Amino acid sequence: MGKVCRSLFFIEEGLARSFYYGDSGTDVSLWFFREGEFLTNSESFFQQKPSIYNIELLEDARLYEISHQRLEQLFEELHLIERFGRLLAIEMLGEMIQRWHAMQFKSAKERYDFMLERYPDLFQRLRLGDIASFLGIRPETLSRIRAKH
Which part of the chain is the Cyclic nucleotide-binding domain (predicted)? Predict the structure, then answer.
């Protein structure tokens, strides 16, 4: 088990990813966070429990940070902030469900197309190995798909 995530960040500039270490010791990309998005380990942050995931910055970044404690205070004091948090959680859940559906029920090419459609800018900013692990495919498979595309 890892540490409890105690901060939520807003990315003004930069790129980050969440990942975990697989059984073979290789890292597996779970999610990418870019400009205009919130960055945190959601499960650990909102439930305040140790995380099994890691987060790393992939580019120089400008971030704004709020602690879990301060956010909870704002939720109590300002219902508009609480509503914003609820809407953000709903949006994050929707994204997670769409990604889960793509990863479970689509072919490797369809997963690639899903990522290309949803996150076209990331293909110029990420290492191919990170893209391949996010898509649940080997780097060689990603190279073949890209060559045919």
Answer: 1-75
The DSSP output letter for 4 is B
Q: Count CB atoms within 10 A of the CB of residue 38.
A: 16
Question: Is the CB of residue 19 less than 8 Å from the CB of residue 28?
Answer: yes
pTM value?
0.85
How many domains does the chain fold into? 1
Q: Specify if 119 maps to a domain.
A: no
Reported as a pLDDT band with limits 50, 70 and 90, residue 3 is very high
Which range marks the domain in which residue 40 is found? 3-105
Asked whether 56 and 20 are in contact (CB, 8 A), the reply is: no
Question: CA–CA separation, 59 vs 103, rounded Å?
Answer: 26
* CATH number of the domain that residue 33 is part of: 2.60.120.10
For 64-92, what is each residue's pLDDT tens digit? 999 999 999 999 999 998 998 899 889 88
